[in-house]
């Protein structure tokens, strides 16, 4: 095994472990509907439009933090959300899924616009300055850090992998752990949104 492949495998395992530990800590602290996550932010979506948390008020929101160069967790989660929304039928019109990058250095508006084409069309894909991203990540209690790879352009990012459900007022309702089946996510969404 080459040193580069070995480094990639070790980094991937570390990212998975960090995400699992962070999720475990969050769940230990949280009961559904009793967690103070989210808050004010100003970011830019994949069309170049400036948005804030108020842009999405009135919609149920599925919020996930990740990055477009992510090899596994992010595209898997995005595909899960896409499949779950497809399963909801007309009820999905009440939901805005929101992807917030933790890698603004590479995830430009143009990069997000291209990534957007692979997932549900209602996705809002958000980026901003490093300071803006750090602020919104703190609001959502999201961990992220660049993996140490001597400044390589194809670096990985360690990050937590919780997906949040917020109500139309932007308040935390529940969360989904990485690996949830799309059917289970759709069932949970239907219980909250259709109820």
Q: What integer value in Å does the Rg equal?
A: 16 Å
For the largest beta sheet, what order do the strands appear in spatially?
5-4-3-8-9
Overall average pLDDT: 85
* Main pleated sheet: 5 strands, mixed
Tell me the CATH topology: Glutaredoxin
What percent strand? 15-25%
How many helical elements? 5
Unreliable spans: 1-30
Fraction of residues in helices?
A: 25-40%
Terminus-to-terminus distance: 53 Å
CATH architect. name? 3-Layer(aba) Sandwich
Q: Structural class, from helix and strand content?
A: alpha/beta
| CATH homologous superfamily (4th level) name | Glutaredoxin
Structural commentary:
It is a single chain. By secondary structure, the chain is an alpha/beta fold. The protein has a single domain (3-193), classed as Glutaredoxin (3-Layer(aba) Sandwich), CATH 3.40.30.10. The chain is built from five helices and nine strands, in the order αβββαβαβαββββα. It has helices spanning 3-29, 73-88, 109-116, 130-139, 182-193; strands at residues 42-44, 50-52, 60-66, 95-101, 124-126, 144-146, 157-159, 163-166, 172-176. The strands form three sheets. The protein has a five-stranded mixed beta sheet. Strands 1-2 form a two-stranded antiparallel sheet. Helix 2 packs across helix 5 (182-193). The longest helix has 27 residues, at 3-29. Mean pLDDT is 85; it is low at 1-30.
């Amino acid at each position: 095994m080459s040193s580069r492949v070995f480094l990639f495998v070790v980094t991937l395992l570390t990212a998975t472990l960090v995400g699992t530990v962070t999720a475990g800590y969050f769940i230990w602290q949280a009961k559904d509907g009793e967690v103070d996550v989210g808050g004010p932010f100003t970011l830019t979506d994949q069309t170049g439009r400036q948005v804030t948390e108020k842009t999405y008020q009135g919609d149920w929101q599925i919020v996930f933090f990740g990055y477009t160069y992510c090899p596994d967790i992010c595209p898997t989660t995005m595909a899960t959300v896409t499949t779950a929304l497809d399963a909801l039928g007309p009820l999905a019109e009440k939901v805005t899924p929101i992807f917030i990058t933790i890698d603004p250095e590479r995830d430009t508006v143009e990069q997000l616009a291209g990534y957007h084409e692979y997932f549900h069309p209602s996705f809002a894909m958000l980026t901003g300055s490093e300071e803006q991203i750090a602020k919104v990540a703190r609001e959502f209690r999201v961990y992220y850090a660049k993996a140490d790879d001597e400044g390589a352009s194809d670096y990985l990012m360690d990050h937590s992998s919780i997906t949040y459900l917020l109500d139309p007022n932007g308040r935390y309702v529940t969360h989904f752990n990485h690996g949830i089946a799309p059917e289970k996510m759709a069932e949970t969404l239907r219980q909250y949104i259709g109820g």
